[in-house]
Specification:
Blueprint (H helix, E strand, L loop, with lengths): L26 H4 L3 H16 L14
């Protein structure tokens, strides 16, 4: 493509309105026991606040 080529720019390609995916944010309904809820929260805390890297963020070789 040359530097002066004309490119068609698309306008908005979404439907107006507020997104409302099914089941988003309903984690409390999926976890029926208090122990299950506490386990979910502990895992989330470990993900965000752990000293070491988590999951796919771990490096095989240190920098």
């Amino acid at each position: 493509m040359s530097e002066n080529a004309t490119v068609e720019v698309l306008g908005p390609t979404y439907e107006p309105g507020k997104p409302n995916p099914e089941g988003e944010g309903d984690w409390e309904k999926k976890l029926t026991t208090q122990e299950a809820m506490l386990g979910y929260i502990r895992t989330a805390d470990r993900y965000w606040y752990a000293e070491e890297s988590y999951g796919s963020e771990k490096r095989k070789d240190p920098a």
